[in-house]
Amino acid sequence: MKKLLHLLLIVSLVFSYAVIPTSSAKAEGMDDLIISEYVEGSGFNKALEIYNGTGEDVDLSAYTLELYSNGSVESSRMESLTGTLASGDVYVVSDSQAGEEIQSVTDLTSSVTSFNGDDVLVLKNENGVTRTALDR
């Protein structure tokens, strides 16, 4: 069962890379980064993917990821991002103890990925625009 879960995680991450456009052209309706995928596997096998479809390179230092645990209105964890995300590219954040399959595509390890079914994960830029990944 564990091998099947790992295989499904790999296929999910690989498939997400295959379906996202990789040109530098702006994706229709995309004015900001989005959380394009998240993986909520067993244990520490958790990850999320941020996609840049804006048509331009984006300075990640203007962004934070915030985790709101168990329905709280206060952020329980926050991660400030750094670097530049090229147009058409993705940035993957995972737990530092995630499996090798996830770690092989990870750009940043962070405890902000300690989410579960009743948590909300938000990508926020300094202009106040937010994108929600998990909102159950």
Keywords for this structure?
136 residues; four-stranded antiparallel β-sheet; 2 helices; globular
Order of helices and strands: HEEEEEEEHEEE
Structure classification: alpha+beta
Largest sheet: 4 strands, mixed
Strand runs, count? 10
Annotation field: number of helices: 2
Assess the beta-strand content as a share of residues: 25-35%
- Low-pLDDT runs: 1-11, 13-23
Explain how this protein is built:
The chain has helices at residues 2-19, 100-103; strands at 34-40, 46-51, 58-59, 63-68, 77-80, 84-85, 90-94, 108-109, 120-125, 130-134. The longest helix has 18 residues, at 2-19. The strands form three sheets. The protein has a four-stranded mixed sheet, covered by helices on one side. Strands 5-4-9-10 form a four-stranded antiparallel sheet, with no helix packed on it. With 136 residues, the chain is α+β, with helices and mostly antiparallel strands. A hairpin with a 5-residue loop joins strand 1 (34-40) and strand 2 (46-51). It is globular. 16% of the residues lie in helices and 33% in strands. The chain is built from two helices and ten strands, in the order H-E-E-E-E-E-E-E-H-E-E-E. 29% of the residues are buried.
Short overview:
This protein has about 140 residues and is α+β, with helices and mostly antiparallel strands. Helix content is about 15%, strand content about 35%.
Topology:
Layout: H1 2-19, E1 34-40, E2 46-51, E3 58-59, E4 63-68, E5 77-80, E6 84-85, E7 90-94, H2 100-103, E8 108-109, E9 120-125, E10 130-134
Parallel strand pairs: 7-8
Antiparallel strand pairs: 1-2, 2-7, 3-6, 4-5, 4-9, 9-10
